[in-house]
Amino acid sequence: MQPSGNDPAIKKTKRGKKTSGTKKKWTWKALLWSVVIIIIAAVAAGWILFRIMVGMQDISKLDEPLPASTVLFDRSGKEVNRLSQSEIQAVEYSKLPQVLVDAVTAVEDKRFFDHQGMDLWAIGRAFYTNLTAGGTVQGGSTITQQLAKNVFLTHERTWTRKWNEVLLAKKIEENYDKPKIMEMYLNQIYFGEGAWGIKRAAATYFNKTVDKLTLPESAMLAGLIRAPSALTPYKHPKEAKERRNLVLSLMLEQGKITSAESDIASREPVKLRSISANKPGAMKYPYYVDQVIREAGAQYGLTENEVLHGGLRIYTALDTRMQEAAQQVYAKEELFPPSQADQLIQSGAVLVDPRDGGIRALIGGRGEQPFRGFNRASQLKRQPGSTMKPIAAYTPALERGYRPSDTLVDEPVDFGGYRPRNAGGSYHGEVTLYEALVHSYNVPAVKLLNEVGIDAGMEASERFGIELTDGDRALGLALGGLQEGVSPLDMAEAFGVYANDGTRIPAHTILRIESADGVVLADVNGAAGEKIIEPEVARTMTAMLEGVVREGTGQAAALPDRQLAGKTGTTEMPGTGGDGAKDNWFVGYTPQLVGAVWIGYDKTDSEHYLTTSSKAAAAVFQALLAEALEGEPVLAFPAAKGVNVKKKDGLTDEDQDRKDDEVKKKDKKEKKDKDKQKDKEEDKRDNRNDKGKEKGKERDNENPPRGGKNSNQEDND
């Protein structure tokens, strides 16, 4: 019998189903509300944490008097530079012309008077740009953030620094009004040509007080803030004028000036104060000073403002005689390959004492030496070519028991599609490791890395201080095919390991930093190095690299009467059939000095590349070391045990020893024969004398002397 439609059991089941659906609905609502509450709580907690972190920021330094110049000393303790020729002179906001404030905000921070220290739109734009670029290439800093960076932080482009900027900017905005922030900002920034602060900038460029600046002059100074050395109108008038007009167009776009004012100002020629009447004494050794500033920030956390105007005393490893010698060498046009008319062939070089890591001299480029310009000695990132062979291939091989006399076959090879070839396309059959390195054959180096393993080459390179990426994990590492590249400073520090018997000491300009009141802020004296290879490996590599200079690709670097080891390097320019190069290197060392030289165009293209061999860099290196070592003691490398390498006459060490022994034996035999012959001749003379005496006695008996005189006296008469 079927139950009726009013059966209570059926109703109960339906009510049960409705109740279950209702519970599920309320469960989802509860979950949603929980998520909302958690988000709100997280935002609230984040805001509270943010407020706490802002409150913890110390900005009291902004109330301190504007600081004094920092003094630099060389390695002998002699003062060589004051980083600012005069103290910064403050100008009150009321003395700043409105056109100047408008120009600065137009180009640097158009929402300055609206935001509270950070511009979310600008930060978002910078975040998107950096994300798509795969690195930090653009900032979104407001004027307040720039002030925080200049006074409290370093200039590195990292998210950590950006976060600290935000915290400090927020604290600054809460403690100072906008006019005061603008005043502090303009009084502390660098405008180029040695001018720190707006007062010196107005005097330096236009011989005016700040309140007398015109619209085009204000736009010019505002345009300099982003890159003062690259845009200075004294050296780059065209670029400076273009930048000025860009500022004027931004002011027009933002409604700060009229179209008529923009047209008149943009047509006005740039009128500058006579440079001879204004410029303070030129800063000595600008590239070296630049490296000191970078090192102070990277190693010791000092801001650029602290270094330049903190009243510090910075003791450096600078050897002024070597630095001046290097600058004189780089002033000789004939040492360098001829350049294209529109671009100068550039170069960077560094000299380091491998015994203590001190940077004795540093050259960041040819031509004009702008303060805080691009420093090719330390900032350059280029492929090192064959200068990587000793580090990535030969050193790990020697560590695994290979000897310079071991052989490899130089022949066409194919490693899964990678087909290295030698310069010129020739092959040389069976060659020793020594011969392959001396003549810089590519195929044997790649074969050697393949035998010891890419990981071994990677690990060795990193020990030597060469920063690598995952993209470098390939056999091309043996030939210096790096993704990011190296600087001359990187290579000098690396080769210093060989010169220093296997111990690596980080290269540095700074020895000690003292505050204005004498507190030691940094001290590297006595810092221990790190042993990264065995001394015998270092000595064997040195013996092999001496061969490069004595009879191989580095002969142009040879120094008369000094032991020198080194390696050439060249990177090929695609599309030139092997006749062109992008980079030209020589890295070499004596027992007391390591040098690295790079030559090339800043921007390499089909019209701008090198057509010279690695002899170009070697020739510059030779001139550099010859001048730098003038008057320095002649030192010898420690001898390498059991190294059997060929000399210039084709003999190995062992062959030469045997030859020397044979010569000694021959000389000894000849001397012995001569002595015997001499003895025989003396015996003959003695016999003749004896016979003569006997005959004399017989004559005396037959004819006795008269008057009592002896025969000798008689003969003498």
Gist of the model:
The protein is α+β, with helices and mostly antiparallel strands.
Structural commentary:
InterPro entries: Beta-lactam/transpept-like (IPR012338), Glyco_trans_51 (IPR001264), Glycosyltr_51/Transpeptidase (IPR050396), Lysozyme-like_dom_sf (IPR023346), PBP_transglycosylase (IPR036950), PCN-bd_Tpept (IPR001460). It is an enzyme of class 2 (transferase). GO terms for molecular function: glycosyltransferase activity. It comes from Paenibacillus mendelii. Keywords: Carboxypeptidase, Cell membrane, Cell shape, Cell wall biogenesis/degradation, Glycosyltransferase, Hydrolase, Membrane, Multifunctional enzyme, Peptidoglycan synthesis, Protease, Transferase, Transmembrane, Transmembrane helix. There is one protein chain. With about 725 residues, this protein is an alpha+beta fold. It is about 45% helix and about 10% strand. The strands form 4 sheets. It has a 5-stranded mixed sheet with strand order 2-1-3-9-10, with helices on one face. Strands 5-4-14-13-12 form a 5-stranded antiparallel sheet, sandwiched between helices. Strands 6-7 form a two-stranded antiparallel ribbon. A hairpin with an 8-residue loop joins strand 12 (about 565-570) and strand 13 (about 580-590). Helix 2 crosses helix 10 and helix 16 (about 390-400) packs across helix 21 (about 535-550). It is globular, with a radius of gyration of 39 Å. The N and C termini lie far apart (about 180 Å). Mean pLDDT is about 85; it is low at about 1-15, about 275-280 and about 695-715.
